[in-house]
Amino acid sequence: MRDRDGSRRVPAARRVVDAVRRSGVRLVRFLYTDNGGVTRGKATHVDGLAGRLTDGIGLTVAMQAMNMLDQLTRVEGLGPVGEIRLVPDPETFVVLPYAPRTAAMTVDMRTLDGAPWEACPRDFLKRQIAACAAAGFTVRAAFECEFSLATRGADGAWAPLDESLCFSTTGMTTAAAVMDDIVAALEAQSIEVEQYYPELGHGQQELSVRHAPALAAADRQVLYRETVRGVAYRHGLYASLAPKPFPDQAGNGGHIHWSLWDAAGRKNLMHDPRGRYGISALGYHFVAGVLAHLPALVALTCPSYNSYRRLKPHSWSSAYTAWGPDNREGAVRIASPFASDRAGSTNAELKPSDASSNPYLALGGLLAAGLDGVRRKLTPGEPALVDPGDWSDAEREARGIRRLPASLAEALDGLAGDEVLVEALGPVLARAFMTVKRSEWEAFSKADVAFEVKHHFWKF
Ligand code: GLU
Ligand code: MG
Q1: Which of 42, 287, 311, 401 could form a disulfide with 396 if both were Cys (CB 3.0 to 4.6 A apart)?
Q2: How far is CA 236 from CA 64, 104, 204, 229, 232, in A?
């Protein structure tokens, strides 16, 4: 419950308890997102809320070794012995518009002594935010998600809601009632909606929300996914944010837009009217860092087996480490700013990113990669002004452009070999994440596409 004006006159915990009393809420969910990218949680009854705001709720350490198939992997220290505490951040309190008398907060994972736990993804993002602040800038971001609306037949198979065309008004009409409720539910949680339109794929929608400071952006992404799925379900529909819920249809991106600001959040440091495409030297160092680490970073931003069905050439999802102005086949697109506020609207967009990610890991990884570019004063080379997939291998090589990993296994190899990202994650989180993701790759690579779709469709 961040106030729009940012005022903190009443301590957040007190405001949560007051808000719960006023709204008649009975259960308050404490939400975390795990290494498989799945949001899970435990709820407290209101009577115990005041105490649990400080004590948290207990969780076995093993959950950070659980994959998205609920298979427990073997990670040293994350077995059946040991507990952590899920301690909510009262700033994130929302009453859930799609679940009766229920509210939610996102949590930090803490040790029994109250210290940040080494395997906590939210703390990983906080550390990267602090490192950027120490380097003189703050990051604002927004996850821009596409999702597919579907019905489910008696046989359990999902079918797209419609066969409408890209941006078509018939698609708007088919989805109007559910989209209106999703927008209302986001507004009720103070998540400002930017734009809506039906996308290219059958039943595919895009609904973007406003950018926010990095931690709030990741928290919002958790609540956004919950909201889209939750509201659709109340309409008798299924919403999937999985990267490729229908293998023959356009994939769902979860692009990350970001910009770099001064400490007060007033000046967009990414903007320089004299810079190429209006981007500052700092902005380009950050972009270059992202591109340099991209073959490893995608393990965090495109972390599911299903992600690699989406990241293909000529799919508008990007497949190469190219960048360019408004180039939607570039991994990093320099978005054209808006005339009324060029400085404020200057931003870049990471295309190889989808909503099967743990947003704290995805955004934390983006910050760590970008910051490395800033520290080393990297530059991104020449922009791609055409689809880089149209160049020959030799042309791409001459430009220093690499193919992004073609599978989760390749991406994990990239991550394992990336010292900057592994060090930023820290040994426990890095080991747990990679073990969980390897196990998912092993499970899905042995199975067929129906199994893959079944298990990705409604978790994301
Ligand atoms: N659906 C595309 C993706 O997978 C993005 C299309 C677009 O918005 O440019 O990322
Ligand atoms: Mg789109």
Answers
A1: 401
A2: 32, 23, 17, 11, 7
